[in-house]
Amino acid sequence: MKIPGRYRMIVFALMMSGSTACIVSGIIIALRMPLTLQFLSQWLTAFLTAWPIVFVAILIIAPLVNKLLDSWVEKN
Q1: Position 76 in a domain
Q2: What domain count does the chain have?
Q3: How far is residue 5 from each of residues 12, 22, 36, 49, 53, measured CA to CA in Å?
Q4: What gap in Å lies between CA 53 and CA 56, rounded to an integer?
Q5: HSE-up (13 A, CA, CB side) for residue 9
Q6: I want to staple 46 with a disulfide (CB 3.0 to 4.6 A). Which of 22, 25, 27, 75 is the partner?
Q7: How far apart are CA 10 and CA 71, in angstroms?
Q8: What is the DSSP letter of 69?
Q9: What is the DSSP string of 12-55?
């Protein structure tokens, strides 16, 4: 069973924001503290803070970037 096409942008934003927030928060925390059990707690806190922010940002920014790219990039 597939997700209806009208939800594509929301699913895209969820997946992209989740992976981006996970990677960026992990790298920032790793640069600031040693890899201990406290690292996992700090990473989870940072990730859960960042994810909704990145999600909303992608929902707002992605359509604008796509429009800009439509004017810059030739269609096949």
Answers
A1: no
A2: 1
A3: 11, 26, 42, 28, 24
A4: 5
A5: 11
A6: 25
A7: 24
A8: H
A9: HHHHHHHHHHHHHHHHHHHHHS-SSHHHHHHHHHHHHHHHHHHH
> 15 in a domain, yes or no?
yes
What range defines the domain where residue 38 resides? 5-71
- Residue range 6-64, pLDDT digits in tens: 999 999 999 999 999 999 999 999 999 888 889 999 999 999 999 999 999 999 999 99
* CA distances to 15, 55, 69 from 11, in Å: 6, 10, 21
Residue 21: both structure tokens together: 């927030």
- The pTM of this model reads 0.83
In this structure, is residue 22 part of a structural domain? yes
Instruction: Check if the beta carbon of residue 43 is closer than 8 Å to that of residue 26.
Output: yes
